[in-house]
Design goal:
- The structure is a single chain.
- Strands 1, 2, 3, 4, 5, 6, 7 and 8 form an 8-stranded mixed β-sheet that branches.
- The longest helix has 21 residues, at 45-65.
- Helix 3 (45-65) runs parallel beside helix 4 (85-92).
- By secondary structure, this protein is α/β, with parallel strands linked by helices.
- The mean pLDDT is 89.
- It is 36% helix and 15% strand.
Length: 262
Amino acid sequence: MDADPRIDRTKPHSARVWNYLLGGQDNYDVDREAGDTLLRVFPDFAQVATLQREFLRRAVTYLVTEAGIRQFLDIGSGLPTADNTHEVAQRLAPESRVVYVDNDPLVLVHARALLAGTPQGRTAYVEADVRDPGAILAAAAETLDFSRPIGLMMLSIAGQIPDDDLAADLVRRYVAALPPGSHLALSDGADVNPTLVAAVSSYNERAAFPYTLRSPERLAVHFEGLELVDPGVVSTPLWRPPAGAPPQPAVINAVCGVGRKP
């Protein structure tokens, strides 16, 4: 672990808790305790994290192979795990360029290990807060060409913004900065499952950055003005599942979607 004094080891951080739930090692006791609390209240929470990672893989694969995207802006990337955005994209199209954004110094420390990417492409990292789109977009423009379509990845980041209107406004501002043909891939936790709501409420009591669950209808607002890719805004495991995937339960823990900017 890095000794950066900016890293708060006294409160759980969502990126590190998520890392723990995905089986990673880049977390502290306080993060593991928070993760275990989540799992005691809602034993399927680790599956929620895994399903979101699978959505990332499927969304990036779609954007590269079907939408022709070769540039990605991943805001709220979290700690590196298996099959990060640049790994999926550059495996399919080695020339792909990816910019990761996160505000956790620990994420920056570990992200340096994945900045190399492929020789044909480019991978960069920006330490900034999602609430500062001006700084993020300016930094991203050093790597990405904003005259060409970009895939904007926002996974579990809108939930970090407690205010509904501010969350929606921030997503709109990022999308507005992208050229036509760009895509938004977004997923976030939903407030449909009472057990999940209880687990997140318990987590928020100690978290450095509380997480806000929203209704599927409220999350769908982020795609207004975009052309939704089939099957639309749906429960995370139902977005273009692989052939032969087992049936998924009807309960909704998180929703996701991909939309194209006309």
